[in-house]
Amino acid sequence: MSTPVHPARQKRVAKSLKFYSTMAIITGIWLLVLVAEMIIKYIILGNGNQPTWFSYIGPTHGLFFMLYAISCLDLGTKARWEPAKWLTTMLAGVVPFLSFYVEKKRRNEVVTAFKLDDLA
């Protein structure tokens, strides 16, 4: 039988999990946009005559990645993850499609560990 989790801690972890999940999905989407932009820019257009709005894609992904990293640290602290789990979770934001897979995996782990079926 597992140890009961205090309801206040459950709420804190659930809030951090929601922030993490949101940032993982947004970061994953922006990473895919960035990859598409790079393919268009370097393969299709040959690094010439690119739209000026392409220059905003990289920094936007970077901003969301920083928020994603903060969300990983926030959730990792509240869920008491080992530093290796923090690092691997953060690195998932730089590999296309991996942030979606890792988000689902971490979500399931946290929901199970903290009994968040009703809160998450």
Core attributes:
transmembrane helix; mainly alpha; membrane; single chain; 4 helices; DUF3817_TM; 120 residues; 0% strand
What does the model show?
This protein has 120 residues and is mostly helical. The protein has one domain. It is 72% helix and 0% strand. The chain is built from four helices and no strands. The longest helix is centred in the first third of the chain and has 38 residues. The two termini are 22 Å apart. The model has no long low-confidence stretch (mean pLDDT 91). InterPro entries: DUF3817_TM (IPR023845). It is a multi-pass membrane protein. It is found in: Cell membrane. Its main location: membrane. Keywords: Cell membrane, Membrane, Transmembrane, Transmembrane helix.
